[in-house]
DUF3800 domain-containing protein (Roseivirga spongicola), 280 residues
Amino acid sequence: MRKGFLIFCDESVKKDRHYSNFYGGALIFKEDYEYVKNRLNQTLSELEFEDSELKWSNINTHRVESYKKIISAFFSLIREGKIKVRIMFTDNRNVPVELTSDHKRKSYHLLYYQFIKHAFGFSHLDSDYPIDLELFFDILPQTKKSNIDFKKYIYGIQFLPELIDSNLFIKKDSIYEVDSKKHLILQCVDVVLGSIAFRLNDHHLDKPDGERRRGKRTLAKEKVYKHINQNIRSIKPNFNIGVSTSFQDQLDKFTDQYRHWIFVPKKSENIGGSKKRKRS
């Protein structure tokens, strides 16, 4: 059997206060997929979870402990080396310049393409054997034509000069749009991605209009975020969610179990603004 990777991808928050364009993905070795799926499903069944789908937006006071337990199982698999997670987002202070109307119209897919191309560190692989790559996207919200064009670009990644040595192979029929309700791995990515966007954009401080205290749902989400942060720090002790994850060797971009990447357009201006406190 040929070696292979599966990548489950999700996106969240197009535009927000401080950071925007959140994309996330979980890479799994093909031979580990059934093991990973069964472990997560077993945890979920033990919780007798009422929701049909785990989602960051569904967290409330009554579900905090359930979410923490499924996230613990997810990060346990990350620590075991069964899953690699990558998160990408943009800093609103880095403003793209010289954008055409076509760039703006296609920005969702263009950023997704950059995420797949760079975030998993494939350009630093040097494989002596072919590696099949299959990609699972949560149902893409764009038009049918633009989604077809996007998949053509994803298919073409394997032919880029900087990825030739990685020996990746992508079949045209191995780029899927799937229903996240049927893929627990995608749901876990949604929760982690949502938590990062929540904290980076200071939504843990949100108060209902006219209220002096934060709402119960906000407090519940903050508890889940803190649990996720603790799990990240069990892998990266000095982790700062608001910066690109450091590395000692370029290969770390592939081998690391968990990484963040702030995408900065080549043609952009930093408009500065007040320096935000260090994120934790």
Remarks:
- The chain is about 35% helix and 20% strand.
- The first helix runs from residue 33 to 47.
- The longest strand covers residues 19-29.
- The radius of gyration is 19 Å.
